[in-house]
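Title: Prediction job returns without error message
Component: structure pipeline
Severity: low
Priority: P3
Assignee: unassigned

Description:
Job completed but the reporter wants confirmation the result is attached to the right record. Sequence as submitted:
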Amino acid sequence: MNVLVVVDMQNDFIDGALGTEEAKAIVSKVAKKIEDFDGVILYTRDTHEGNYLDTQEGKLLPVTHCIRGSEGWQLAPQIQKTAEEDRIIDKPSFGSVDLCYTINEELLDEEAMARGEVVDSVTLVGLCTDICVISNAILLKAFLPEVPVIVDAACCAGVTPQSHRNALEAMKMCQIQIENE
């Protein structure tokens, strides 16, 4: 079985507080990737509380974003229409250990393995390449060292084009496969 992880395709990262033209440009590509994907699809959602500016992240990135329940926290409409609520993983930090446990425990449980189901690959798409995509890709590689972890570069955008490219190069060094550069 193949797994697609759609990372933080939220309004605040697309056209909200931290939005970029590059992020806007990948929304339809990500929607198409989801539509064409044959396998399990999981979504992450950057999730902060009202005290965001008092957190370590908030002090280092003092731009209020993805506050639980806000419009900016919501997945982009084109993406939201594809997402089942029980497949959305709220994450309070860049990388999601819950995402890794979900794949490790739900998709690789004893019953699934007895049926011959194994995770053949995990592909990541979304935002931001240089923060949350790279964090989750490296966590997944650590949790599942023998499973190919793939990043579809054409369905990702970074904070800047240069930081996007830097993140792709760093992931290559960690034996994460990069497609569609």
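Comment from assignee: result matches the submitted record. The longest helix spans residues 21-36.
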